[in-house]
Each structure stands twice: as structure tokens, then as C-alpha cells.
Write a structure and sequence with these properties.
The complex is a heterotrimer of chains A (about 260), B (about 250) and C (about 650). With about 260 residues, chain A is of the alpha+beta class. Chain A contains 10 helices and 7 strands. A 5-stranded mixed sheet of chain A has the order 2-1-5-3-4. A two-stranded antiparallel ribbon of chain A has the order 6-7. The radius of gyration of chain A is 22 Å and the shape is elongated. Chain B is mostly helical. Chain B starts with a helix and ends with a helix. Classes of the chains: A alpha+beta (about 260), B mainly alpha (about 250), C alpha/beta (about 650). Bound molecules: flavin-adenine dinucleotide (FAD), protoporphyrin IX containing FE (2 copies), iron/sulfur cluster (SF4), FE3-S4 cluster and FE2/S2 (inorganic) cluster.
Chain lengths: ~260, ~250, ~650
């Protein structure tokens, strides 16, 4: 039967609220000699409650010192990656309705901890961008008088598909290799490399890329654990990206 | 950057590619070999006659001997190149295991009502990799032992001490107490090879054409078929069941 | 003061969104030392949230044929309800195509024209159009409200995201230093000259100073003064405008011009794109009636944003909204568009519904309500991006009132503004830097920092039983949305002003409940709240004084546009020590397109009584009185493309 939104809404508002228990990792490095611990909070669930709403409620009503990051609260900016019951997820996009009564929250591993649930993904991504030179190496200077260079729309779509990554770091936190090898460019890094590799405006050739990609910090560091692909909140086809990079590396090696 | 460092980087990139190819290709070869192997050993289902006829044939035509050498080499090469990816430190391994376990346990298969979208997609592959390493280690020990036994079987006839691989020795060996080892080895090898092939296909992009779900299914089907065959064989080798297909050969004149 | 908390640079850019980064690129390419401060890593700036597109008159597809900057200019001025500075609108329209092509050069994956037969959805119907093969591979356009042609260039459903990422790639390429998780909390200035800013590190809570020859504010909008009733990110708290207001001399322009988007998702306020209605979606009230059909028989759901928002607000006032614990909302119905359309062309909407309300728009209705969306007002700057009354201070992007949007911004014009203004303002900051030296005594910086520190310290010292800062924020939000929202009237605005003034007093005795050292999130918010309340006050007051209806500013007690008395821009300053803000008005600027009918909405207005020539003469007088060069620039006259810093 067709379900009207209004009915769905009534269903949702009429069920008695659950009491949610949050167990949250706490650590403020600015407090000397403090040690990490887990703190519990309890709140009543409301319809459509996301971790964004829940955490803000905890901060505003219970413990205003709680640190976490949100910005767009619409799964676009990538600020709010955190470990939810042991799995990286975007806090703003995770509805409590999809979670059990007890919700464990930790900061993302791999990244430097800033405090509580807040980690420094910005620095990681900037360093990765510098390391892989993640920008267009243009052939010539921009000519403001010229019409734009043409590009096939299919190709534009493919580049866009790579570009959809919001640098939330969830894939990195979920990857066993990235967790133990700080030099691994990691899923999002490999995706970024692929994005520039397939862009005809970039002047780097197969040999240049070969050196970046074909090593244990590049695509051959990947063990095929596939967590990145399953975790990525933007559902990027990361596994296809690695396959592309592997095949490119192979082709580069045997074509000259 | 000087030309020298560039060359070093290019050189390094080339060798890393080669290592990756070696570990993948050796795994692939071993896996394919294992299927053939299971079928060959499965000849015991046709009774001692079938097994001996096959083993004898392979030895008489000098197929078995070079294969054994080749497989031993491949086995060692794969062990060396594949295990280079295993984290060296216990702490790192523990961290990986904890992560993999958390990811597996936090998965859910409950879709959002009205769509097939699952908020916390189930994920087991990280844990499967951990098990691949674990089974690999078991295979290294038990497989080596098995290869020594079989190496002796195959090569001692040259010195006139033995008749090569024989159903009698095999049955005596397995039923005489080695069957638990074989059972463990069987399970490990099947698991390791099955997951390994699935992973290999995804890594190199067979998945893009076939979709991961399809590969996952294929892997499962193959796993159970080969494992079923293996178990049946083992049961016969251990002496708990008479060769069920022996009547076929006995009926022949 | 130690070296660690004092930095010097040529150009300080506050804000790492599209506008800020484009400025930084221009200045860095000209060889200057540039530092960007940003609350979040640049790529997380709210520019990344824009989905729709970026207006630029390239005229590449069939429905855009014959488009040119002049048409773009006309649409922009009409859209602004004649509130725009027409010279700026002209410069903007001329430069937008270059800025868009430059983004392509940076690597932007613009959606391209597909030569041959294409199917589009136009007003809910499928239409087949043959795109010429000649244009195959050029940048494609899509339709947006209020434009004569298809003009919005776009990258699938993530235009802002893709643009911001390529822009940041350029910033990384040029090696521009970015200090993220750093918030500017005050400007360093002395005698009408700006020398940089005091910052607060959001990792450690420590203050620091950046001394700069030129300072650019590009901090985006101030939608969060409407609390949760906004489509804006939580960081769009208007801190840039607020620190400019704090100088006491720099005026903000048109703060009462606040745009509401008809379809913000309820309760979260996340934007549901206009494309839903563009493709044929309906709005329904609680009885599932299509109220827009009665209200606007002609354009129905597709009237302009301000018009639709007004009808929706009216409908909810009449008790036809669906009541929920989060307040009333209406329904958006796109079920009839079919699953295929929803999961492809409107995929983002489908995902948002699924992820945030757990509903499936193929079978369910979407709860929506008009939601604050864009800040037309901001730091008033001239054509070159220079703030009034403060040498060395520039502003660009949504934070600025450069004023090409007047009282209503057209969809797609603001992304384009960020890049066009970014390059222009960056260039003028670079020019300014070349001509000046950093001769300021460090004590000025030190004093500014001490002041900021003591402000934070005062919060930590205060104790007792005052209200909580979050409570004050919620009350501010309620006041703003209910009394300075879509419909405004004198009585409610007076109440709003009183309430916000009371909140400002309350804020002075509010108490923090957490005194932890480091980046104390409650303290961080408290510091912002002070500024937000002042912005809320100038917004409400500006709206109270402006007795007419123009664009998004709609007064039920003065429902007509009044060009006779109000063809002018609000300027507001908050002099040091004064108890309240000081308002003044300036003409909107030189007029090229005389005020008239917008082409939609109401055709009734109180007409301008002076001749346009006389109006323009007055503008020129005013400009020369302020020591500015009076110009009436012909189209394209400022396009010194050849002089642009060569990037390579
Ligand atoms: C949901 C949504 C959809 C939109 N869609 C469109 C569209 O389709 N087309 C269109 O043209 N426009 C659209 N807009 C409007 C457009 O996105 C914005 O106007 C534009 O991106 C603003 O860019 P900006 O660079 O001025 O500011 P922002 O991108 O908001 O950047 C502000 C920067 O300033 C920093 N900052 C703020 N305060 C401080 C401080 N005190 N100290 C240091 N740094 C600070 C922030 O960290 C951030 O880096 C949309 C807006 C929203 C909210
Ligand atoms: C000698 C003991 C063995 C050890 C220690 C071992 C170990 C490993 C390890 C650690 C991997 C993962 C490598 C990676 O992810 O890059 C691996 C992969 C693999 N192994 Fe083994 N293995 C052994 C024997 C075998 C055998 C007998 C087979 C065949 C039946 C086999 C087939 C495979 C396959 C197909 C892969 C996938 C290769 C890839 O993903 O690149 N392995 N092995
Ligand atoms: C070329 C080398 C090999 C030969 C000739 C060979 C031969 C045999 C023979 C004859 C048996 C029957 C039991 C016995 O006689 O002990 C057997 C069983 C078995 N072998 Fe091998 N083998 C070889 C390599 C391997 C390798 C590399 C592995 C995996 C690591 C392996 C795994 C097994 C297993 C699991 C069984 C038990 C099968 C069952 O009971 O179903 N073998 N093999
Ligand atoms: S690839 Fe996915 S998970 Fe990884 S950073 Fe990008 S969006 Fe996040
Ligand atoms: S989880 Fe890591 S190992 Fe590879 S497939 Fe993903 S990068
Ligand atoms: S807050 Fe932006 S992705 Fe969650």
C-alpha cells in the first residue's frame, strides 16, 4: 500500500521514545595529566534524531565541554566522521533510529586527536594533496579570451564521480593498512590520484604516475580489505578506482 | 630532484609491481593447482584401483615429479611474497584485528523501509583478510609437512625404495592418525584459496565487470563444492566409508 | 608576545570558501605572501554545499542561445528589485564567463553539452531538443529561476563542491599557507587603517595575531542568526561581518535583505533544491491541497523564491501546516515524477530524504518549510572590494555587500559572485599591498590581542546563575524567524528589536557551565553569540526602518516597492561605546536600467519621482564627496584581462 508521508510521520511521532545511552570517548589534550575515559549520557530519542541533533543536545543540556565537529549537517562537508559502535560514519547522517539503544562513539583513528570526538582531518588531507601533487599540472597558462577547452561529457561525469569525495576520512579510518602505515596515501588519496590521472588537462604522463602509484604507499599498499568501499558515506566506487590504478600501473610498466 | 633519485623511484615502482604480481600470480596458480589436486586425490572415491592407476600414470610419464618441484617452489615463493604484507608488529596486528572485528560486528542488513538501502552495510572482508593470514600460517606448517611426505613418496622410487604414491600408503597414513591434520589443512586451504581468488578478482577489477556480489556468490559456490569433495575424500581416506564409486571400476572386466 | 602567536604577512584572507581562496590565489600569483585563516579546513567551507549552479552567460546550449552578459546584467538587476549597485552587476556579468572558464582551467568537471538529441524536463514535461554538434563538449547550462536564458553552469549536483575542490587545489599548488581551525575574533586597526586580525586557535583556545598589509574578509553568510531555521552550515555565524561592525567605523550594507528558500527540509533545515519544483513537484498543505494553484494561478509552484516563501508562510499562519514537535511544515510532493527520475536527476534529494528523514520520496511526501538561505547584506564595499572608512580592509563573497544582489539574489549568482569578486578583490588587495608598507607598531596588535583575551577571560570568570548561551541563541532564533522572517510588520519588528536588546543584556550576564581550558566549545560559541546578537539587532532594526517592500524584504504594512523614498541602500555602523547602531542611507548607485516591473511578482509600486539623470548626478556628487572616483563605466571597460597575473 502506498504510504503517505503524513502517515509515516504520525507513526514516527507516536511510538514511545526510546531512552538512548551514549558512551562517548573523552580526552582533552589541553588538560595536563588527564587520561582518556568513556563517559555516559542518556537522552530521549526524538523522531528523525541524528547524531548531530543528539550530540548537540548532550552538549547544550548536559556537558558543554564536549568537543565534536559538525558544519554542514547535511553530509556534504565531511567534518563529522566518527566511530559509531566501532564503525566510521558521518555523525550528521547517522540516524539514531538505525542504531541500538546503546551508542558508543569514538574519534576516528589514524588522524591526530584534537579532543573528544574531534580529529584533525584537514592537515592530513592537505599533506596528502601536497604529497601527491593533487592539482592540475596545466600545459599552458589560462587565456581569458579563449573559449573553454572542450571535454566529452562522459569523461566530465567520470571525473566528477571521483570528485564526489568529501574528504571525511571514514574510508581511511576503516582501512587496516592506513591504520598502521602512516605513509599510505590511503583510499581517499588513491581516489584523488585517479581523479587527476584521468583528467586530460593534467600534463603528467603514465610514467610520472607510475612512480606515485606503484608502490607500497600507493595502490600496492592496499590489501583489498574493501572496508573503505563499504564504509564510504558517499558510496564512491573505490574498489573500481584501485582496479583502475593497478591496471594503469601494469600498462605503464609494459608499454615502455 | 636529481635524475638518480628519479631512477631509484622508478626502479622501486617497478619492483613493487613485480612483487605484487608474483604474490598474486603464485596464489592464483596454487589455487588452480589445488582444484586439480582435489580432483586427483578424489580419485580415491573410485577405489584403490582408480587412485593407483592415476598416481602411477602421472609418475610413469614423469608428470608428478616436476609438478611436485614446481609446486614446492611456488608454495615457498607465495609464502615469502604474500607474507611481506603481514604487519611486522604484534601491536599493529592487534589493531587490525580489533578494527576488522568492530567493522564486522557493527554491520547491519536492515534496510531503510521502502528502499533497499542499508545504513550500515555489512562488511566482513577485513576480517576475512585476517583469517587469510591465519590460514596461510597454518598452511605453511601443515602444507610443508605434507609436501615433505609426498616429496618422499614421489622421489624415493628413484632409489628403488618405494613404488611412489600409492593408495595403501595414503590410506594407512590418513587413517593411521594424520586425518585431523588433513582435515585442518583442507579447511584452511579451501578457505584461503577461495577468499584469495575473490580478493584477487576484486583487486584487479574483474569486479567492475562482474560486480562484487556476483564474485562473492561464485566464491561461495566453488568453496562448498570443493570442500564437499574434499571432505568426502577425507572420509574415505580415513577409512570410515568405502569408496562409494568403486563399483564402477569393479564392474569393468 | 612570542613569535608563535604573532605572524606577519602581506595579505591576510579571513575565510577559506570560494571567495577567500580565489582572492588568495590572485594575491599569491602576484607574488605576495598570503595567509588564509579558516574555522574549518577550506574544503569544508559552506561553498561546498551549493548544488545547483553558477551563472555565466556563455550561451552554449540551445535554450541559452543568444545569451550575453548584458542579458545577465538585466536579469540580475530585476532580480535584485533594483536594490543592486548596477555598475557592480555589470562588472559581474562581464567577468562571470571568464571566471567560469578559469575554473575549467583549474580542473573543474563542468557538465558539458552533448551534441545531438537531449531530453529535458521543462515544467514537468519531457521535451526533446537537438543540441548542435558544433557546441559538443562546451560547458552546459541548466535553467534557474528569474533568468531569461538557461545560464547556470553546473557540475552534476555538486557545483559548489567541485568548484571549491579545484580552487583549493590551486591554493595548495601555489603553496599558500592555510591555518585552519583558526577563527578571526577581532580586526587590528588604528586610525582608519586595518593591520590584520586577532585570531583564536580552535585546537588550543589560544589567541594569536596576524599583522598584514591588507586584510580580506570572506567569511560567508550570517544565516545562523536564524538558529536552526537556516539552510546554512553551523559555521555561518557572520563572524566576518561582526568583527567589521566591531571596528565602530566600517558600515554593513542592507542587513535586512535576507533570502528565504521555500523548501528547506523540516526539521533539519537542509536544503531541498528548487529543481524539485522545476521538474514538476507540488507543494501541499496538511489537507493535501495544492494551495499554490489558488495563490498564484499563473506560475503556481514556480513563482520566484520570495513569492513562494510568502505564500507558504501565509498558509502555515492560517493553520494549514502540519504540526510537529519541531514546529509546523508543509509537504513537497514529487512522487509523480517517478522512481527513475528521482534516483537519477534528483539523486541528491532522494539521498537527503533517505538519510535525514528516513523516507522514500518515491512513495512518501517530503516535509518542508521556508528556511533562511542567503544573506544579501554584509560588509559594504565599493566596486574594488574596499570596505568604507577603513584602508586596507577588503571583503568578498557572501560576507560582503558588494552589492550585485540588492534585495533578492538570483539562484546561481552567488557562486559566480564568489569567483568574480574573488579575482577582482584579490587583485585590488594585491595592488594595495604593492603600494604600502607594514608600518604599525606591534603594540597595536598586542593591545588588540589583550582585549580579545580579556573578553574570553571575562566569560570564564563570570559566575552565578545567569542564563545559558544556548538558551539565548534559541530565543534569538525564535525571534528572528517569527518576527524578522518572511512577513514583517512594524509592530512585530519593534517587538523583535526589544527582544534582541533584552537578549543582549541577558548575554552580558550569561554564564558558562564549562570552564575547561583549551578549545572550550561553549566559550567559543559564547564569543560568537555576542556578535550574532548585534547582527540580529541591526537586521531587525534595518527592517523596521525600511518602510517598503523590496525583494525579500516584505512589509505587510508597506506592501509596495517604493522607489520614490527607498531606492537606497541601508548602511549601519556601531560606533565605539554607543548603545545602539547608527543607520544611514546611500543611493543604490548609478542607474543604467531604470526601475520598473520585474517581469514577475507584483507590478504595483511607488515610482521614482526624480529623473534617472538627476539620481545619477546625486550619486556622483556623493561619491566625490567621499573622495571616490565617479565613474559610469561602459560595459566591459574594466576587463583588463591581459594584465592578469600569469599563473605559471
Ligand atoms: C544549501 C545551499 C545551497 C546553495 N546553492 C547555491 C547554488 O546552487 N548556486 C549559487 O550560486 N549559490 C548557492 N548558494 C550560496 C553560495 O553557496 C554561497 O553564497 C557561497 O558559497 C558563499 O561563499 P563564500 O566564499 O563567500 O563563503 P563560505 O563558502 O561560506 O566560506 C566562509 C569561510 O569563512 C570561514 N570563516 C567564517 N568565519 C570566520 C572567522 N571568524 N575566522 C576565520 N574564518 C572564518 C569559514 O571557515 C569558511 O572557510 C547556496 C547556499 C546554501 C546554503
Ligand atoms: C604457504 C603458506 C601460505 C601463506 C603464508 C599465504 C599467505 C597469504 C597471504 C598473507 C595473502 C594475502 C596477500 C595480499 O593480500 O596481498 C595470500 C594471498 C593469496 N593466497 Fe596465500 N598463502 C599461503 C598459501 C597459499 C596456497 C596454498 C594457496 C592456494 C591454494 C594460496 C592462494 C592465495 C591467493 C589466491 C591469494 C590472493 C592473492 C592476492 O590477493 O594478491 N595461498 N596468501
Ligand atoms: C605436488 C604436490 C602435491 C602432491 C603430489 C599431493 C598429493 C596428495 C596426496 C597423495 C594426498 C592424499 C593424502 C596423502 O597421501 O597423504 C593429498 C591430500 C591432501 N593434500 Fe596434497 N599434494 C600436493 C600438494 C599439496 C599442497 C601444496 C597442499 C596445500 C597446501 C595440499 C593439500 C592437501 C590436502 C588438504 C589433502 C587432503 C585432501 C582430502 O583429504 O580431501 N597438497 N595430497
Ligand atoms: S572516499 Fe568516501 S569515505 Fe573516503 S574520504 Fe572520500 S567520501 Fe569520505
Ligand atoms: S580498506 Fe584498505 S586495504 Fe585497500 S580495499 Fe580499502 S584501501
Ligand atoms: S556535518 Fe558536514 S558532513 Fe556531517
Amino acid at each position: 500500500m502506498e504510504r503517505l508521508g503524513s502517515q509515516a510521520m504520525t507513526e514516527k511521532t507516536n511510538t514511545p521514545p526510546r531512552r538512548l545511552r551514549f558512551e562517548i570517548f573523552r580526552f582533552n589534550p589541553e588538560v595536563p595529566e588527564s587520561t582518556p575515559y568513556m563517559q555516559s549520557f542518556e537522552i530521549d530519542e526524538t523522531p528523525y534524531m541524528s547524531l548531530f541533533i543528539a550530540l548537540n543536545e548532550i552538549r547544550e543540556r548536559q556537558d558543554p565541554s564536549l568537543q565534536f565537529d559538525f558544519s554542514c549537517r547535511s553530509a556534504i562537508c565531511g567534518s563529522c566522521g566518527m566511530m559509531v559502535n566501532g564503525r566510521p560514519a558521518l555523525g550528521c547522517r547517522t540516524l539514531t533510529a538505525d542504531l541500538p539503544d546503546t551508542i558508543r562513539l569514538h574519534p576516528l583513528p589514524v588522524f591526530k586527536l584534537i579532543g573528544d570526538l574531534s580529529v584533525d582531518t584537514g592537515t592530513w588531507f592537505r599533506e596528502m594533496a601536497e604529497q601527491t601533487e593533487a592539482w592540475i599540472h596545466a600545459r599552458e597558462a589560462f587565456d581569458p579570451d579563449a573559449q573553454e577547452e572542450r571535454m566529452d561529457d562522459d569523461l566530465a561525469e567520470q571525473i566528477y564521480e571521483r570528485d564526489r569525495c568529501i574528504e571525511c576520512g571514514c574510508c581511511i579510518a576503516s582501512c587496516g593498512v592506513a591504520n598502521i602505515n602512516p605513509d599510505f596515501v590511503a583510499p581517499a588519496g588513491l581516489n584523488r590520484i585517479a581523479r587527476f590521472m584521468m583528467d586530460p588537462r593534467d600534463s603528467r604522463d603514465a610514467t610520472d604516475w607510475f612512480e606515485v602509484v606503484s608502490n607500497d604507499n600507493g595502490v600496492f599498499g592496499c590489501l583489498g580489505m574493501m572496508a573503505c568501499h563499504d564504509i564510504c558515506p558517499k558510496e564512491l566506487p573505490l574498489l573500481d578506482v584501485y582496479a583502475y590504478l593497478r591496471r594503469k600501473a601494469l600498462a605503464a610498466r609494459f608499454s615502455g | 630532484m636529481t635524475d638518480d633519485t628519479l631512477n631509484v623511484r622508478a626502479e622501486e615502482a617497478r619492483s613493487q609491481l613485480v612483487y605484487e604480481l608474483i604474490s598474486g600470480a603464485s596464489g592464483l596458480c596454487l589455487a588452480v593447482f589445488m582444484w586439480g589436486h582435489m580432483v586427483l586425490v578424489g580419485s580415491i572415491l573410485f577405489g584403490a584401483r582408480g587412485f593407483d592407476w592415476l598416481a602411477g600414470g602421472l609418475e610413469d610419464y614423469y608428470i608428478a615429479q616436476p609438478t611436485v618441484i614446481f609446486i614446492i617452489v611456488l608454495f615457498l615463493v607465495h609464502a615469502v611474497f604474500a607474507s611481506r604484507k603481514i604487519p611486522a608488529q604484534l601491536r599493529e596486528r592487534k589493531q587490525m584485528i580489533r578494527l576488522a572485528r568492530d567493522l564486522r560486528e557493527s554491520g547491519s542488513s536492515r534496510p531503510v523501509p521502502g528502499s533497499d538501502y542499508v545504513p550500515f552495510r555489512p562488511h566482513v572482508e577485513s576480517m576475512l583478510w585476517i583469517w587469510q593470514v591465519r590460514t596461510g600460517m597454518v598452511i605453511l606448517v601443515l602444507g610443508s609437512f605434507h609436501l615433505v611426505l609426498l616429496g618422499l613418496d614421489v622421489f624415493t622410487p628413484m632409489f628403488g625404495m618405494h613404488r611412489g604414491i600409492e593408495s595403501a600408503t595414503t590410506l594407512a597414513r590418513v587413517s593411521g592418525g594424520l586425518w585431523p591434520l588433513y582435515a585442518v589443512l583442507l579447511l584452511c586451504v579451501e578457505f584461503h584459496a577461495g577468499v584469495g581468488l575473490y580478493r584477487l578478482a576484486v583487486k584487479w577489477g574483474v569486479g567492475a565487470r562482474l560486480s562484487r556480489a556476483a564474485l562473492w556468490k561464485i566464491e561461495h559456490v566453488l568453496f562448498w563444492i570443493i570442500l564437499g569433495l574434499g571432505i568426502l575424500t577425507l572420509v574415505v581416506l580415513a577409512g570410515w566409508l568405502d569408496p562409494p564409486l568403486a563399483f564402477l571400476l569393479e564392474a569393468a572386466p | 608576545m612570542t613569535a608563535a602567536n604573532m605572524t606577519t604577512t602581506d595579505v591576510l584572507v579571513i575565510g577559506g570558501g570560494l571567495a577567500g581562496e580565489r582572492c588568495a590565489i590572485e594575491a599569491a600569483a602576484a607574488g605576495h605572501d598570503v595567509l588564509i585563516l579558516s574555522i574549518v579546513p577550506p574544503r569544508r567551507s559552506h561553498s561546498c554545499a551549493a548544488q545547483g549552479g553558477m551563472q555565466a552567460a556563455l550561451g552554449n546550449c540551445v535554450k541559452a542561445e543568444g545569451d550575453n552578459p548584458e542579458l545577465h546584467f538585466l536579469d540580475t538587476v530585476r532580480g535584485s528589485d533594483w536594490g543592486a549597485d548596477q555598475e557592480v552587476a555589470q562588472i559581474f556579468a562581464e567577468e562571470a564567463p571568464v571566471a567560469v572558464r578559469e575554473l575549467a582551467h583549474y580542473g573543474m568537471p563542468w557538465t558539458r553539452v552533448r551534441g545531438g538529441k537531449n531530453s529535458y524536463f521543462i515544467k514537468g514535461e519531457r521535451v526533446d531538443i537537438d543540441e548542435s554538434l558544433e557546441n559538443d563538449g562546451l560547458i552546459m547550462h541548466r535553467d534557474f529561476g528569474g533568468t531569461a536564458k538557461w545560464r547556470a553552469c553546473y557540475a552534476a549536483a555538486g557545483t559548489g563542491h567541485a568548484a571549491l575542490y579545484v580552487m583549493d587545489s590551486e591554493v595548495v599548488r601555489l603553496g599558500v599557507t592555510v591555518r585552519d581551525r583558526a577563527e578571526a575574533v577581532a580586526l587590528i586597526h588604528e586610525g582608519g587603517r586595518c593591520w590584520g586580525a586577532v585570531g583564536r586557535c580552535l585546537r588550543t583556545g589560544a589567541h594569536f595575531t596576524v599583522l598584514a598589509k591588507a586584510t580580506v574578509i570572506a567569511t560567508g553568510g550570517y544565516g545562523r542568526i536564524y538558529g536552526q531555521y537556516t539552510t546554512n552550515a553551523t559555521i555561518n555565524e557572520g563572524m566576518g561581518a561582526s568583527i567589521a561592525l566591531d571596528t565602530g567605523v566600517v558600515p554593513l550594507g542592507n542587513m535586512e535583505a535576507v533570502q528565504f528558500h521555500p523548501t528547506g527540509l523540516s526539521p533539519s533545515g537542509i536544503l531541498v533544491t528548487e529543481g524539485c519544483r522545476g521538474d514538476g513537484g507540488y507543494l501541499l498543505d496538511k489537507d493535501l491541497n495544492r494551495f499554490m494553484v489558488e495563490a498564484e494561478p499563473e506560475k503556481q509552484e514556480l513563482a520566484s523564491r520570495d513569492v513562494v516563501s510568502r505564500h507558504m508562510a501565509q498558509c502555515m499562519r492560517d493553520g494549514k501546516g502540519v504540526e510537529t514537535p519541531y514546529g509546523p511544515h508543509l509537504w513537497l510532493d514529487i512522487r509523480h515524477l517517478g522512481e527513475k527520475h528521482l534516483t537519477t536527476k534528483l539523486r541528491e534529494v532522494y539521498d537527503i530524504c533517505r538519510d535525514f528523514v528516513g523516507l522514500n520520496p518515491v512513495t512518501e511526501l517530503i516535509p518542508v518549510r521556508p528556511t533562511q538561505h542567503y544573506s544579501m547584506g554584509g560588509i559594504r564595499v565599493n566596486k574594488d572590494g574596499e570596505a568604507y572608512n577603513m584602508a586596507g580592509l577588503f571583503a568578498a563573497g557572501e560576507a560582503a555587500c558588494w552589492d550585485m544582489h540588492g534585495f533578492n539574489r538570483l539562484g546561481g549568482n552567488s557562486l559566480a559572485e564568489t569567483v568574480v569578486a574573488g579575482r577582482l578583490v584579490g587583485r585590488s588587495a594585491a595592488r594595495f599591498v604593492t603600494e604600502t608598507n607594514l608600518d604599525v607598531s606591534t603594540s597595536v596588535a598586542l593591545d588588540a590581542m589583550r582585549e580579545a583575551e580579556s573578553r574570553a577571560g571575562a566569560w570564564l570568570d563570570r559566575s552565578g546563575s545567569g542564563p545559558s548561551v544556548f538558551e539565548i541563541r534559541d530565543r534569538m532564533a525564535e525571534t528572528m524567524i517569527s518576527k524578522v522572517g518572511i512577513f514583517r510588520n512594524g509592530d512585530e519588528l519593534t517587538e523583535a528589536v526589544d527582544e534582541i536588546e533584552a537578549l543582549i543584556t541577558d548575554c552580558d550576564r550569561a554564564v558558562l557551565r564549562s570552564k575547561v581550558p583549551g578549545m572550550n566549545p561553549e566559550l567559543t560559541f559564547a564569543l560568537r553569540l555576542e556578535g550574532m546578537l548585534r547582527l540580529a539587532l541591526v537586521t531587525a532594526k534595518g527592517a523596521l526602518v525600511r518602510c517598503e517592500s523590496r525583494g525579500a524584504h516584505f512589509r505587510t504594512d508597506y506592501p509596495l516597492r517604493n522607489d520614490r523614498d527607498w531606492l537606497k541602500r541601508t548602511l549601519v555602523r556601531w560606533p565605539d561605546g554607543a548603545g545602539e547602531p547608527e543607520f544611514s542611507y546611500e543611493p543604490v548607485g548609478l542607474i543604467n536600467l531604470p526601475p520598473g516591473y520585474r517581469g514577475y511578482g507584483s507590478d504595483e509600486r511607488i515610482a521614482l519621482e526624480t529623473e534617472v539623470e538627476a539620481y545619477n548626478a546625486a550619486v556622483i556628487d556623493e561619491q566625490s564627496r567621499q573622495g571616490r572616483l565617479a565613474t559610469m563605466e561602459p560595459m566591459g571597460s574594466r576587463m583588463q584581462w591581459k594584465d592578469w597575473a600569469v599563473r605559471q
